[in-house]
C-alpha cells in the first residue's frame, strides 16, 4: 500500500492555484498562444493588479512561462498537459449541470 508523501501536497498546491474562475480562464486563454497581461486584463475585465496577482499564483505553482519582449512580458503555459485535466473537469461539470437539469 502506498503511503502519503510530500508529493501529494505539491500536487494539491497546483490544483489550488487553478481553483479560481479567472485563473482557469487565463490557462484556457494560453491554450494556443502566449498573451500579455494587458490583453488578459481586457479579456477578464479586471484591473491589472488583480490579473497580475492571478498570474503570480499560476507562476508560483509552476504553470506559466514568462518571456520579456521589449517593454512587454508575455505568458505561456509551461506544461500544456494541464489542459487535459481542465478538459476533464469540464466534462465532470457538464455532467453535474445535466444532472441538475434532469432533477428539475
Please give a structural write-up.
The protein has helices at residues 6-18, 21-29, 37-44, 48-60, 82-102, and strands at residues 35-36, 64-69, 72-77. The protein is built from five helices and three strands. β2 and β3 (72-77) form a beta hairpin. The chain has a three-stranded antiparallel β-sheet. The protein is globular. The protein has a single domain (6-79), classed as Arc Repressor Mutant, subunit A. Helices cover 62% and strands 13% of the residues. The longest helix is centred in the C-terminal third of the chain and has 21 residues, at 82-102. With 104 residues, it is of the alpha+beta class.
CATH class: Mainly Alpha
User: Rg from C-alpha positions?
Assistant: 16 Å
Q: How many domains in all? A: 1
Low-pLDDT stretches are none
> Distance N terminus to C terminus?
43 Å
Biggest sheet features: 3 strands, antiparallel
The CATH architecture? Orthogonal Bundle
The class by helix and strand makeup works out as alpha+beta
CATH-assigned homologous superfamily = Winged helix-like DNA-binding domain superfamily/Winged helix DNA-binding domain
Could you spell the SSE succession in H and E letters? HHEHHEEH
Number of helices: 5
Tally of extended strands? 3
Percent of residues in helices: 55-70%
* Residues in β-strands, percent: 5-15%
Provide the spatial order of strands within the biggest beta sheet.
Answer: 1-3-2
Overall geometry: globular
Amino acid at each position: 500500500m502506498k503511503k502519503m508523501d510530500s508529493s501529494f501536497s505539491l500536487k494539491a498546491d497546483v490544483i489550488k492555484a487553478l481553483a479560481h474562475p479567472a485563473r482557469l480562464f487565463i490557462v484556457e486563454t494560453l491554450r494556443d498562444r502566449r498573451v500579455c497581461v494587458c490583453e488578459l486584463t481586457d479579456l477578464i475585465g479586471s484591473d491589472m493588479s488583480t490579473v497580475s496577482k492571478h498570474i503570480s499564483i499560476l507562476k508560483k505553482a509552476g504553470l506559466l512561462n514568462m518571456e520579456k519582449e521589449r517593454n512587454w512580458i508575455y505568458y505561456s503555459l509551461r506544461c500544456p498537459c494541464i489542459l487535459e485535466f481542465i478538459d476533464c473537469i469540464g466534462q465532470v461539470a457538464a455532467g453535474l449541470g445535466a444532472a441538475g437539469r434532469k432533477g428539475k
